[in-house]
Amino acid sequence: MRWSGWGDPAHAVSLPPRLRALLENALGVRPPERPTVTLDEIGLPAPGFDPVGLGAIVGEGYVRTSAEDRIRHTRGKSTVDLLRIRAGAVHDAPDVVVVPGSHDEVLAILDWCTRQRIAVVPFGGGTSVVGGLAPDRTGFAGVVALDLARLDTFEIDPVSRTATLGAGLRAPVAEELLAAQGFTLGHFPQSFEYATIGGFAATRSSGQYSVRYGRFDELVVALRVATARGTVDLGRAPRSGAGPDLRQLFLGSEGTLGVITEVTVRLHRAPTRYAYTGWRFGTFPDGVAALRRLAQDGPVPAMLRLSDEYETALTGPTTDGGCLAVVAYEDGPVPAVEAVLRDAGGTPLGERPGQDWARGRFQGPYLRDALLDAGAFAETVETATF
Amino acid sequence: MRWSGWGDPAHAVSLPPRLRALLENALGVRPPERPTVTLDEIGLPAPGFDPVGLGAIVGEGYVRTSAEDRIRHTRGKSTVDLLRIRAGAVHDAPDVVVVPGSHDEVLAILDWCTRQRIAVVPFGGGTSVVGGLAPDRTGFAGVVALDLARLDTFEIDPVSRTATLGAGLRAPVAEELLAAQGFTLGHFPQSFEYATIGGFAATRSSGQYSVRYGRFDELVVALRVATARGTVDLGRAPRSGAGPDLRQLFLGSEGTLGVITEVTVRLHRAPTRYAYTGWRFGTFPDGVAALRRLAQDGPVPAMLRLSDEYETALTGPTTDGGCLAVVAYEDGPVPAVEAVLRDAGGTPLGERPGQDWARGRFQGPYLRDALLDAGAFAETVETATF
Fold first, then answer.
1. Given CB atoms, is A256 within the 8 Å cutoff of chain B?
2. CA A234/CA A245 separation, integer angstroms
3. What count of Cα atoms within 13 Å lies in the side-chain half-sphere of residue B380?
4. What is the pLDDT of residues B93-102, one digit of tens each?
5. What does the pLDDT look like over A73-112, one tens digit per residue?
6. Residues of chain B below pLDDT 50
7. Starting at the edge strand that comes first in sequence, how are the strands of the sheet with A119-123 ordered?
8. Predicted local distance difference test score (pLDDT) of residue B319
9. Measured between CA atoms, how close is A249 to chain B, in angstroms?
10. Rounded (10°) angle between helices B335-343 and B284-297
């Protein structure tokens, strides 16, 4: 992961000339006057406390204080985060990065830090875009970034179709391990390539196929949480109608209420493949009406995605105006879905537009880096309707 | 509702002679020595406080202190509750029953009671079986039963397929109003005939068709809650991945954290009818395996219900041993479901066993009254598996 941007530098993209021209000529966008700082240019203060107590818990090799380690654990990957780090602003950097190897070590770290009045920020894939990794230092003697990468356990129950996964397990690794036994989580947010299981839970993550499989929190059967007061185990049965559901406090808590160290999730049978097709609707409201029909009455395919006229014109295939919808299916196209789309005024565009989407499905953050280089600000916002 | 038992006295059932003989001869069950007390025999102390402040809020006609009103708001309908009330034990009776007409009146009542240190127990249909209506008087100057029957508003959004319902609206009334516009909640617990919308939410209710429509809490889009500190409005969007989900604290809270006064729920298109069929499986594990296949891979019908060998022999049709499964479908049988059941070793038994189940689906509590009269103790327990 690039410390000042997204992903694997080898996969960086450059802007298509058409888009570059549009930015410069139509919108007057100019490259930033100051280029991104280099790692060496960033000056970090020495850690504000002596982490020797942490070394006693996890072993000295897992307590890291190098500038690069600390910078790589500074905030997340929102556009604002990137603008700050590109400018060399690292006032949010942790004093120390600690990499525990077990739930019990996390408990011990929280205990030690609580007694020292040191803030702890759980760190999974580092892909947060909502400030979940930005610490509040007020009243604290320092900040520890708690990197959960070593909590990567994997245990599967193929009969009940559940898996108990370490919080630090990366999503692509989890999918690979599950695929070997014919299963999938079906959870593919744009951050998929770097995100972790614990991060999915702590951020109440939503993915590209959530219309079919549910948001990540809907997959969660049980959580193990380390807190400064001890362990909280939540979720004792596949379904429970008894009392308030306290899992729902930790899901979406962004690490503020405790450290999720282990997550038990429901699995889905992995399809043989996903098939993608494109559909054209005359107007955005036409497309919304069609997708609402499927969402309300079914059948619900793996994904339903509608672009407005502007996005369609900018990024889509030649659709002769109108709006592009991309539909993903498990295994292959479902005639009953196609019948609804056709009946609602959709025109099939074949596989190509869907395959184009699938190829670029994790490319958004790479494109954003290129846009920032060109001086253009881009951000993702999400909404929901019935 | 009978004060000492369940439902409409006109619908009371008597035990089939075969069952009565089984109880007496095989199990040695004898009728209780002391018959159920009459309403007149029950001695209630005078209310422990002057409810004049409550009359100022709701109007004197909606503050009730008669013995019958108080006895009818004493605890719920668990078997233990019934044994107590049949014995005339009413130490849990509220001092006063108050029937507010609006959310604001509920707020004012909570404010008044808090200042007087009086406990408030929200009361919907009075069908609780988990002690949610049994007050803890310790440290309180008295107990108010807050009967929500007048909070019966109904507002529907047919495009988004949601309805905002008053907490006191009874389930059959809600279904009737929804059916007039082609919708259903699809929520049919055994308490359906008396339960209320607010009670469904406060108890995290599970129904006979929950495998298809979800538990009631899964239908809830938004909640309005009155607390002693003011109003809490939760659920601002159809879907939200932002932060902890505080609705899940009030769902299942049994009235302890606040008074749910209004619930916005997702609706389903009402089927033209429900069709029921029976299937025979050789053993309970065979039946479990078949139902698990449908639950995990679909398609999921409206209901999947499996009786063990003992229940099948006692109450089911002649199945020549084995276990009876009852399947309910929306509109009509689904061939893909039948194919799975057949492939998993099931033998179709036609419509009769399913229709028998449907006829008796709300009869359990009536049968329990007859069993208690005969001296037999019966209770419902629920479990869940993957």
1. no
2. 9
3. 15
4. 999 999 999 9
5. 999 999 999 999 999 999 999 999 999 999 999 999 999 9
6. none
7. A63-64, A96-98, A143-147, A119-123
8. 65
9. 5
10. 140
- The structure tokens listed for B299 are 């398609």
From A157, A248, A253, residue closest to B248, measured CB to CB: A248
Cα–Cα distance measured from residue B198 to residue B315, given in angstroms and rounded to the nearest whole number: 33
Q: Which residues on adjacent β-strands are paired with residue A184?
A: A268
Contact B31, B55 (CB under 8 A): no
- For residues B122 and B255, the answer to whether their CB atoms sit within 8 Å is yes
Residue A269: closest CA among chain B residues belongs to which residue? B297
**Which string of DSSP letters, residue by residue, matches B304-345?**
EEE--HHHHHHHS---SSSEEEEEEEESS--HHHHHHHHHTT
Nearest-CA residue of chain A relative to B266? A386
Report which of A135, A7, A155, A154 is spatially closest to residue A74, judged by C-alpha positions. Answer: A135
| A206: nearest CB among B241, B246, B251 | B241
What is the distance between the alpha carbons of residues B373 and B375, in angstroms, rounded to a whole number? Answer: 5
Phi, psi of B156 (to 5 degrees): -125, 145
- Give tens-digit pLDDT for B255-275: 999 999 999 999 999 999 999
Q: How far is CA A13 from CA A18, A39, A352, in A?
A: 14, 21, 21
Contact: B386, A204; criterion CB under 8 Å? no
Place of tokens 């479901």: B337
B260 touching A (Cβ < 8 Å): no
Of the candidates B214, B346, B196, B359, the one whose C-alpha atom is nearest the C-alpha of residue B274 is B359
Separation between Cα atoms, residue B287 and residue B295, nearest integer Å: 12
Q: Does B297 touch chain A (CB under 8 A)?
A: yes
Contacts of A130 in chain B (CB under 8 A): 242
Structure tokens at A86: 């590109």
Interface of B with A in 204-233 (CB under 8 A): 204-206, 215, 217
Q: Do A242 and B386 touch (CB under 8 A)?
A: no
Which residues, numbered 79 to 138 in chain B, qualify as contacts with chain A under a Cβ-Cβ cut-off of 8 Å? Answer: 130
Geometric angle at alpha carbon B32, from B30 and B33, rounded to 5°: 110
Query: Which residue has 């790479």 as its token pair?
Result: A366
Other C-beta atoms lying within 10 Å of the C-beta of residue B233: 10
Tell how strand B119-123 and strand B143-147 pair up.
parallel
Q: Give the containing element (helix H, strand E) for B357.
A: helix B352-359
CB pairs under 8 A between A and B: 102
Give the pLDDT of residue A316: 65
**B236/chain A closest Cα distance in angstroms:** 10
By the CB < 8 Å criterion, does B161 face chain A? Answer: yes
> Structural domains in chain B?
32-147 (3.30.43.10), 154-269 (3.30.465.10), 274-374 (3.40.462.40)
Question: How many other C-beta atoms are found inside a 10 Å radius of the C-beta of residue A9?
Answer: 11
Least Cα distance to B19 among B304, B305, B319, B375 occurs for: B375
Q: Smallest Cα–Cα separation from A252: which of A229, A230, A226, A223?
A: A223
* A61 touches B at CB < 8 Å: no
Is the Cβ–Cβ distance between B198 and B263 less than 8 Å? yes
Helix (H) or strand (E) holding B225, with range, is strand B220-227
**Nearest beta carbon to residue A384 from set B238, B269, B296:** B238
> In terms of CA atoms, which chain B residue is nearest residue A289?
B159
